[in-house]
Amino acid sequence: MKILIIGGVAAGTKVAAKLMRENRNCEVTILTKSKDISYAGCGLPYYVGKLIPERGQLIVNTPDSFSNLTGVSVLTEVEVTKVNPTNKTVDALNLKTDETNTYEYDKLVIASGAEAIKPPIDGVNLKNVYYMRTPDDAVALRSAVEAGEIKRATVVGGGYIGLEVAENLSLLGVRTTVIDMAKHILPGFDDEFCEYVENHLADQGIMTFTETKLEAILGEEKVEKVQT
């Protein structure tokens, strides 16, 4: 049986490994548009802050090591562009060669994961606007800080990842502010706890502005300020 999996990070690789453990006669192939699989997403902010020194420490398995361990075929930098359920095929673009290939399947698993949200506002494509989703995102942000391009930063979103990014930017000497539309940072926690964390962040020089909506990102070629 040919089983095709779209997506190769947490869910995709777990499904692939489980399938091969259950039936070694399966032919399992992962297609992923990323060049990495099985990376430690929770570690990305700590790579930015240099608490994780090397990019390679974020990678749990390389495509080759995962294939050798499980017998799964892993094709990276391949983006699925069309699913043909009648014919049981998918069309996929090879991002390295710009060639489109067709892959057959008996069973299809879609584990393409999430994407960083780009708010529908002006300025999201300006230089020095960063997202935190992949190892390359973390590398880009850390490189910009190391190059002296970032002295002040506004982190949009006061959840776990946003606060971890803010903390690590602050450790690098970047003057950091966090904004969030909710009443408090850390949605889901009670007010007393959230206020304690907000006060702690203020003591560390990280200002938080809640009930604050990002309206626009302003600048000519690169971001200069945000409008709330």
**Main sheet strand line-up:** 5-2-1-9
Q: How many DSSP E strands?
A: 14
Return the domain count.
2
Order of helices and strands: EHEEHEHEEEEEHEHEHEEE
| CA-based shape | elongated
- How far apart the termini lie comes to 54 Å
| C-alpha-based Rg, rounded | 21 Å
Mean pLDDT: 95
**What's the CATH topology name of the largest domain?**
FAD/NAD(P)-binding domain
Task: State the CATH architecture of the largest domain.
Answer: 3-Layer(bba) Sandwich
State the major sheet: 4 strands, parallel
**Helix fraction bin:** 25-40%
CATH-defined superfamily of the largest domain: FAD/NAD(P)-binding domain
CATH class membership of the largest domain: Alpha Beta
Characterize the structure shown.
This protein is an alpha/beta fold and 228 residues long. The chain has 2 domains: 109 residues, FAD/NAD(P)-binding domain, CATH 3.50.50.60; 93 residues, FAD/NAD(P)-binding domain (3-Layer(bba) Sandwich). 28% of the residues lie in helices and 26% in strands. The strands form 5 sheets. The protein has a 4-stranded parallel sheet with strand order 5-2-1-9. A hairpin with a 6-residue loop joins strand 13 and strand 14. The longest helix has 13 residues. The radius of gyration is 21 Å and the shape is elongated. The protein starts with a strand and ends with a strand. The relative contact order is 0.14. The mean pLDDT is 95.
